[in-house]
Amino acid sequence: MGQNPIQRLNPETMSYKIRTTCLQFSFLLLSLLFWLSGFSQKKPVPPPSPYNFEAVDQLFKQNQKNLNNDYVVLIWKDSGLVYQKQGSDDFTPKTPAPIAGAGNWLTAALVMTFVDEGKISLDDKVTKYIPLFGKYMKGYITIRNCLTNTTGIQADGGGISKVMAKSKYESLEAEVESYASKRDIVTNPGTEFLYSNVGPNIAARVLEIVTKKGFDRLMQERILRPLKMRSTSFTNEDGGAINPAGGARSSALDYINFLSMLLNKGQFGDKRVLSEKAVKEMETAQFISLPVKFAPRNIQGARYGLGNYILASGAGDSPTVMACPNMLGSTPFIDRCRNYAAILLVLKPEEEQRRDLSVSMKNLIDELIPSGCK
Description:
Elements: H1 11-40, H2 54-62, E1 71-77, E2 80-86, E3 97-98, H3 103-116, H4 143-147, H5 160-163, H6 172-182, E4 193-194, H7 198-211, H8 215-224, E5 249-250, H9 252-263, E6 267-268, E7 271-272, H10 276-282, E8 292-294, E9 303-304, E10 309-313, E11 319-323, E12 331-335, E13 340-346, H11 354-368
Parallel strand pairs: 4-8
Antiparallel strand pairs: 1-2, 1-13, 3-5, 6-7, 9-10, 10-11, 11-12, 12-13
């Protein structure tokens, strides 16, 4: 009998061919989808800035080497960013970095949320919440003294190494109790300015006592989350006590959100974070013309508000420029006459020139944006 001309199909061979064809088709389809996705998600080109910031570009180009490319500059005007500059792809507006003393502005704002709610008063004596201070001749220190570096309590001394030194205490409670029992009071409260961690950390501990919550949690609930500051934290990653005065990390984008809220008198989008009264109080010069025992070099001669320095005033002595420069070279500031906020965020304090860059930057910006003040 002859062979059947109809060949029997091998199931294994057929299955292999089908799988190979499907894989080739799937690869082609995925490649096409990837290309279309990249095309459709291409970010639109932002509208050109109404200001020519070429001089600012040149300033940072000249200082690129000194900054090790680790810097970000953001300028916020009216309702959005009008300028953005970064030194490298590795250090972006979203990159968190230590901000040292610039955290004082955040801490003061947090305290003012409690003042807004009537839960504390700036002129409350610290002994109302921490009686231990009264046992060691420190009963006249107020929360206002704490936010203005005028507690009169002996500090660790000047310099970045002292302000940013790792805490030897396990908790903020233990550290603040040591201020009460182990630190001398060298002058009466409100009679001398001495920049240190002491005052802001005492004020922060008061908030913990009032709420029975940790400082970092309070900061998250009342300031960071409402302002979408997702990269900002005071959490001590090395363990030990949290440092409300100098232990924060933040990104340029986060901090510009904070500044825009202050510029808008406490409002951020549809959220009221601080009252207008609270923002005004923060920008009011406190304890004017006090002797200065220690202040960072680049703000000597400035007056101090609550958590920030007042660099310039206008008619009727109303504050017009506020800033909170830190010893790392980073500087956030607000100019109310020109209605803008800006931040220069740098990573490492290796070069002395960094401390002067923010001044040069602001002078250039002020030449471009006209003042609305008379």
